Amino acid sequence: MPKRNDLEQKALQFVMNTGFEGVLQSELWRNLGASSREGSRISIKLENKGLIRRAKELCDGRWTYRLYPKRLPASIESISDCPCLMCQDNPRCDPSSTISPKNCERLTDWVLLIAKGESGTVGDS
Amino acid sequence: MLSNIDDATLLRVAGALGEEEAVKLIEILKNSEEITDDEIANKTGIRLNSVRKILYKLYDHSLVGLRRTRDPKTGWFIFHWRLQPDQLEGFILSQKRRVLEKLNIRLGYEKNHDFYYCYTPGCKRVPFEEAVELVFRCPTCGKPLMHYDNDKILGALSKRVDVLRKELGE
To answer: Is the pTM higher than 0.80?
Structure first.
């Protein structure tokens, strides 16, 4: 039988991976291979620790809970391609100085690239 | 402690900080409690000065910690490095906040300005005030400047700002 803490960690990871959508408590315990009692106890525990939020939801005529993560897994995905992340000019970058995010060419190129990625072509270089 | 950082994220951060060599270095650090820079260089085949450069970079962000001892024979310092994965989440959050701040500044600037552009690859867009001073001629290629619609840029920037805000719980 897996240790309680292992299950808790797995449950937390599972809930966090669902992102803003959240997951039904029943789906959680089925996925973990645990019983509904264990599932409910673990989710209460995680809620008490402030790691998840439980919201009551009616599903197939039964009241259950939808579990939402309070914190998403820390991922660097959303900024990993941004030139500001490891920019060497960072200490000198300020809106009031010559090196500024307002007119930074590297930032412009990146924004144009993501704009292009989202919808066809953009007129700039 | 319940952690919400996985190894893949750790390696991605290493990649962002110092590319391939940092990834190799983190792999070694991850599998050992404490290790000296010399041992890392021997294990990875990365030059000792590069190893130290990457380690100091990681140390600047508190992602690695060090312990210093003195070599009894030579009297030189020996640095023992260890990974501090518990600092990773804080590092990611602080970087996200910093990037968000920059993107917000840029978004405000794009919203409040009209841009003019000669549509020549390699030339820069010019805000209206500057375009007036230049009599609507590109300062680089001399072609006439025409109005540039930055809606797509605004859209892409707003989306990224929203994503970051959500991730930071703002």
So the answer is: no
**Hey, of A47, A82, A110, A113, which one would you mutate to test binding to chain B, going by the most B CBs within 10 A of its CB?**
A82
| Nearest CB to A102; choose among B89, B93, B106 | B106
Radius of gyration, alpha carbons of chain A: 22
B105-125 mean pLDDT: 92
- CB < 8 Å to B109, chain A: 101-103
Report residue B4's pLDDT band, with 50, 70 and 90 as the boundaries.
Answer: low
Looking at the fold, whether A63 and A94 belong to one and the same domain comes out as no
pLDDT at A123: 46
Q: Do residues A23 and A59 both lie within one domain? A: yes
